[in-house]
Write a structure and sequence with these properties.
By secondary structure, this protein is of the alpha/beta class. The chain folds into two domains: 153 residues, Quinone Oxidoreductase, Chain A, domain 1; 151 residues, 3-Layer(aba) Sandwich (Rossmann fold), CATH 3.40.50.720. Helix content is 25%, strand content 26%. The chain has nine helices and 15 strands. The chain is globular.
Length: 334
């Protein structure tokens, strides 16, 4: 019996903010399995801000989505059929063929996950790519040291919320976060344990950051760019370090915005800025798991998920992610 899959194809490349009509849901028959392949029924698919860049044509760190072809991204699911010795029917796996309900996956591109240790969805968030992004950015890129004052932008998201918590766990003297609503500020201070947090919509970011860190900051974990990066440069202490993870404030701009007006602070304050992509740093995967997984299991690190039900609701969930509707990791439950 032929298996069919429902999968989203890129219908057109967006200009500015993506629209629902930029993607289309297609039903397609799946071929039979070849040796070394598994058939997976996806349970959760990951939505990440970086996918907005993959919708554009042109050179990037990852190949762009192709118009008329299936989209992809992180997913977890159950093995329905296997022609690989590595996986048995009923195993739960993490793989890279999201934006669909079923997928034929090469065994070499899948990783078995332990759903007894943590829910499967956690492997797309706190124990997956976003979690490792937070760890790599803080430890390797920002060269975090005990006693640092740390500022995290986009702090209520999957990456930012963990970056701030890890900084606290590893001995930061103060952790400050920015977010886009009063509820997210409350979440950061009361549930996640940030020392200070502010709503960037209430006042200029530089003004709010100066009030939260009157003695300056040592580390900036940048998920936003724009006015947040400019504010961080003003607030940065000498020999400060910036981990440039993303610039979500810029992703949907049709024309590039002018850069920060105070870049000379990089020179005068001897600031180190390192942009990074987590996939370049998988040599830290074992270290990340060893350091972070126990903190998640014992509750020292908390996490939130924003879950949208139904594959057909994926495009709207993605647009909502880009507008900041999520707290923690944005997921679609199939």
């Amino acid at each position: 019996m032929t298996e069919n899959a429902r999968e989203f194809h890129l219908a057109s490349r967006p200009s500015g903010w993506p629209k629902l009509e930029n993607v289309t849901l297609v039903e397609t028959p799946l071929p039979g399995l070849e040796d070394g392949q598994i058939l997976v029924r996806n349970e959760f698919i990951s939505l990440d801000p970086a996918m907005r860049g993959w919708m554009n044509e042109g050179r990037s760190y990852a190949p762009p989505f192709q118009v008329g072809k299936a989209m992809w991204g992180g997913a977890v699911g159950e093995v329905l059929e296997s022609r690989s010795e590595k996986f048995a029917v009923g195993d739960h796996v993490l793989h890279g063929l999201g934006w669909r309900d079923k997928a034929i996956v090469s065994a070499g591109s899948a990783r078995k996950i332990d759903t007894a240790a943590a829910p499967s969805s956690a492997y797309l968030g706190v124990l997956g790519m976003p979690g490792m992004t937070a760890y790599v950015g803080l430890i390797r890129m920002a060269e975090f040291k005990e006693g640092d004052v740390v500022f995290v932008s986009g702090a209520a998201g999957a990456v930012g919320s963990l970056a701030g918590q890890l900084a606290k766990q590893f001995g930061a003297s103060k952790v400050i976060g920015s977010a886009g609503s009063a509820e997210k500020v409350r979440y950061l201070k009361e549930e996640v344990g940030f020392d200070e947090a502010f709503n960037y919509k209430d006042a200029p970011v530089a003004e709010s950051l100066r009030a939260a860190a009157p003695d300056g900051i040592d580390v900036y974990f940048d998920n936003v760019g724009g006015d947040h990066l400019e504010a961080a440069l003003f607030a940065m202490n000498d020999f400060g370090r910036i981990a440039a993870c993303g610039a979500i404030s810029q992703y949907n701009n049709e024309k590039p915005e002018p850069g920060p007006r105070n870049l000379f602070f990089i020179v005068s304050k001897r600031i180190a800025i390192r942009g990074f992509i987590v996939s370049d740093n998988y040599d830290m995967a074992g270290e990340f798991t060893k350091e972070v997984a126990p903190l998640v299991v014992n509750g020292s690190v908390s996490y939130r998920e924003t879950i949208v039900d139904g594959l057909e609701n994926t495009p709207q969930a993605f647009i909502d992610l880009l507008s900041g509707a999520n707290t923690g990791k944005m997921l679609v439950r199939i």
